Amino acid sequence: MNPTKILTWLKEVWQAFDKAAKAKSTDVLEYEVAELQNVFALVVVGSFVGLPSPPMQITLDLLPYMDEELVILMNKISTANSPISDLVSIFDVG
After folding, report:
1. Which pLDDT does position 58 carry in this prediction?
2. Does residue 39 carry a pLDDT above 60?
3. Dist. CA 39–CA 22, nearest whole Å
4. Total structural domains within the chain
5. 45 touches 59 (CB < 8 A)
6. pLDDT tens figures, 42-73
7. Per residue, what are the HEC states of the chain?
């Protein structure tokens, strides 16, 4: 084989690995952000599930930043008893 063809092939392989690694790292970061949002919600309103919570003034100050987390928590509460309804809510059927 020609050395330029080998270099071209290696470059294409490297670019494919690079693209796959970037896609995987993005998925991992999105998962971590979702988990951090869940932890934030538990820290702020942890008294509902028996965890120690911050003082009420701090909780009330943080509530405006929690609209999305509260919607997620309410959706999880409404589908907590039925795994099928949880699956359907993931796919947004209806």
Report:
1. 82
2. yes
3. 26
4. 1
5. yes
6. 777 777 777 787 788 887 888 888 787 777 77
7. CCHHHHHHHHHHHHHHHHHHHHHHHHHHHHHHHHHHHHHHHHHHCHHHCCCCCCCHHHHHHHHHHHHHHHHHHHHHHHCCCCHHHHHHHHHCCC
